[in-house]
Design brief:
This is Exodeoxyribonuclease III. The chain has about 270 residues and is α+β, with helices and mostly antiparallel strands. The chain contains 7 helices and 12 strands.
Length: about 270
């Protein structure tokens, strides 16, 4: 089973890129962020024609998340994080598909910091931590996939000194991510590439993509049972190389099939 996350940076403007990627890579589940589309304008018809069922939570001009599942309709289990009913930003969607629960998230960027946007980032992260702990305790197979807007370590960015003041590298952001992993989640991409400089995002400035000056901010975290099934994880860099591409590339994990339970023979 292949599960992917992709910050499309505009689902309508980059629909051709999305459809090409779905056709070529055929993930079983795909989590999308930064739809930048209202619910009514979400291109569900084209996605259905590509063979995917879909759930989405849109927002005009900003944010927005979606979960696509190949050949089935994902079953929604949560829309938005608990803990703050006044938060109307479309940043979290959760569903069941193909035997797993998938949480699709677009964690706030937090810039400029310090300030209200960084405070919102940390508050959102705390609510996410509490919900993630509940999912871990549930015993269900869970993947938490999305754009976390956190560079976990200096090994996950081309120039940590140059970005030191950015919200993505602040000690509070990194500490919250570390607490998330401490719950028992496995960072799949780093697990498969422990010593490699591997990036998922390259901004549009100063030829950062051709020079491979990137950041790793798109993560797929696996519950303990799914971590035991981890087969591979990587980044579809070819998508970032398309004309007028998103500044993110799709990131994915591949899981082996669950082991069948042995049935005891009766004597």
């Amino acid at each position: 089973m292949k599960i992917a996350t992709f910050n499309v940076n505009g689902v309508r403007s980059r629909l051709d890129h999305l459809l090409s990627w779905l056709e070529r890579e055929a993930p079983d589940i795909a989590c999308l962020q930064e739809l930048k589309s209202t619910d009514a304008a979400f291109p569900v018809g084209a996605i259905n024609e590509a063979g995917y069922g879909a759930l989405w939570a849109g927002q005009s001009s900003w944010n927005g998340v979606a979960i696509l599942a190949k050949g089935v309709d994902p079953v929604e289990s949560r829309r938005g994080l608990p803990g703050n009913p006044k938060d109307t930003q479309s940043r979290y969607l959760e569903a069941a598909a193909h035997g797993v629960i998938v949480g699709c998230l677009y964690l706030p960027n937090g810039n400029p910091q310090p300030g209200p946007k960084f405070d919102y980032k940390l508050d959102w992260f705390e609510r996410f931590l509490r919900h993630a702990a509940t999912l871990m305790k549930s015993g269900h197979p869970v993947v938490l996939a999305g754009d976390y807007n956190v560079v976990p370590t200096d090994e996950d960015i081309y120039d940590p000194k140059g970005w030191r003041r950015d919200a993505l590298l602040q000690p509070e952001s990194r500490e919250a991510y570390a607490r998330l992993l401490a719950q028992g989640w496995t960072d799949a991409l780093r697990e498969m590439h422990p010593d490699e400089r591997i990036y998922t995002f390259w901004d549009y400035f100063r030829q950062h993509w051709p020079r491979d000056r990137g950041l790793r901010i798109d993560h797929l975290l696996l519950s303990k049972d799914l971590a035991a099934r981890l087969k591979d994880a990587n980044v579809d860099r070819w998508v970032r190389d398309l004309p007028k591409a998103s500044d993110h590339a799709p990131t994915w994990v591949e899981l082996t099939s669950p082991k069948a339970r042995k049935v005891a023979k009766r004597g």
